[in-house]
Automatic annotation (TrEMBL):
VOC domain: residues covered: 5-128
InterPro entries: Glyas_Bleomycin-R_OHBP_Dase, Glyas_Fos-R_dOase_dom, MMCE/EMCE_epimerase, VOC_core
Any one Gene Ontology molecular-function term assigned to this protein's record: methylmalonyl-CoA epimerase activity
Position of the signal peptide: none
Swiss-Prot/TrEMBL keywords: Metal-binding
PANTHER family per UniProt: BLR5325 PROTEIN, METHYLMALONYL-COA EPIMERASE
A GO biological-process term: L-methylmalonyl-CoA metabolic process
Protein species of origin: Iocasia fonsfrigidae
Identification of the protein by name: VOC domain-containing protein
Amino acid sequence: MIEYRCDHIHLKSTYVEETAKWYCDIFDAEITFEGYFKGSKVVYFNINGMDFIVFGKLDGEKEPITASLRPMYGNDHFGFEVNNMEEAIESLKNKDVNILEGPINVRKGLKIAYIEGPDKVRIELSERNQ
């Protein structure tokens, strides 16, 4: 049987290096590779075992669509699990991160919040208690 697992997330950014730095500063990401791909700076970074790749407009590519924080079809957001929502929100506020929504008690054992990342990326935080 074929096994599938999430391998990486690609982020397209107007400011590649600044975006990678933000993830390092906010989530303690570790940069694992820097280079160029199809005319764009590319930075790979890792956050607790999950790989992210950030790059800009590629050679021959149409101008990317303007980012929006509005809910959308397709990839709406990605999420990080946290072990203490209140501490996470307080830490992010101290780093001047824009808290978009929450924390919200979705159901017993699940609390979520949304924050804004670079280029208007919506990032969910979730705290799961058994």
